[in-house]
Write a structure and sequence with these properties.
The protein has 155 residues and is mainly alpha-helical. The protein is built from six helices and two strands; from the N terminus they run H-H-H-H-H-E-E-H. 61% of the residues lie in helices and 5% in strands.
Length: 155
């Protein structure tokens, strides 16, 4: 019999660990650079943070409720203090809806926003991978600004 690598509580801890690290990354930016500084044609981190906020909390809620609101495609940079406040709200949203997600199951086939089919697990891993990818961009920005990013292993 196969034993799962992670149970649902461990997966939630993994997700929230990545989110804590991304939050620390957001907090390290000089406020005046959060919405303006970019490297190599990439978006400012304030725009990236807005994308991440449109994913983790809203997706976990939708996995639990099957209520897929319109995808928030606004990528206008948001202020650092707003991003941090919304990050904390998003974290609470994840914790609130995680039990409902678990109850409905990770292997359920869904199509998000009527266009992306896959299992809940596949979509959830995409949310985590996307955050890691964009956090790495934030690390690059911080280094370019002469700021040491937080250790990636401290989640």
């Amino acid at each position: 019999m196969a034993v799962p690598v992670l149970d649902s509580d461990q997966l939630l801890a993994h997700l929230q660990g990545h989110r804590r690290l991304t939050r620390r990354t957001i907090a390290l930016f000089p406020a005046d650079q959060f919405t303006t500084f970019a490297v190599g044609g990439m978006r400012p981190f304030g725009a990236i943070a807005r994308e991440l906020l449109a994913m983790a909390g809203p997706f976990v809620k939708a996995f639990a409720t099957d209520d897929w609101d319109q995808w928030d495609e606004d990528r206008t940079p948001i202020a650092q203090d707003v991003a941090l406040a919304k990050w904390d709200e998003n974290t609470a949203l994840i914790d609130q809806h995680w039990p409902g997600l678990v109850a409905k199951g990770f292997t359920r086939e869904i199509t998000i926003f009527g266009q992306w089919p896959g299992t809940v697990r596949q979509h959830l891993f995409y949310v985590i991978d996307n955050e890691i990818h964009h956090r790495a961009q934030g690390f690059t920005y911080l280094r370019a600004l002469g700021i040491e990013p937080p250790p990636f292993w401290e989640r």
